[in-house]
Amino acid sequence: MNLLFKALGDPTRREIIELLRKRDMNAGEIADHFSISKPSISHHLDLLRQANVVISIKEGQFITYSLNTTVFDEMVKWVIEVSDKKNKKTKK
Amino acid sequence: MNLLFKALGDPTRREIIELLRKRDMNAGEIADHFSISKPSISHHLDLLRQANVVISIKEGQFITYSLNTTVFDEMVKWVIEVSDKKNKKTKK
DNA sequence: TATATATTTAGGCAAATGTCTAAATACTTT
DNA sequence: AAAGTATTTAGACATTTGCCTAAATATATA
User: For a 10 Å CB count at each end of chain A, is N or C smaller?
Assistant: First the structure.
């Protein structure tokens, strides 16, 4: 879960996630949305892949990236749980 | 939201959050749960406070820390929204 | 085969992060 | 007022992060 939080702790990477939410894209298309270099985007994509937030599939000379949203489940569960205990304490 | 994700991207800080879920604690009590120095814990608490995850209240010579879970709401909303690929409309 | 296109890898650099010890600040008690 | 307790601030250090350019790899096309 640490890799996931770290992955989400960068605005560029969150923007990439928001892009991929609309449709799958290859690395070049993703890079075109930003003013930083392609190698830097490639690095961000690597971190997102390590955190299992995205999946990459090679298609010819392109590499298509798509979102894997299941990885968020555990995280949301943790956050809700952490929030819930506190509520319980004040509610009861 | 960046400060929040960054705050959550460290295991010690997540443990602090889990501690505070059970009950409010002062800085010394929190530090006693870890093997790292008090100044380091103080720094972690500062980051959590900057991210609005905790609130600190001075009580005599102690400083009591408590969780502020409302800050998670926006984050969970973002994650859920991003996970929902079918509804691509961005609402504010 | 040679050239163009897509993407990553390598290496370097400045800034941010997480840790420490020592010192400073604030409050309490004697 | 002096001493003790709680916590933070300051400064240093190694590691990580995010960015860059240049080079390498892989595929497509003339």
Answer: C
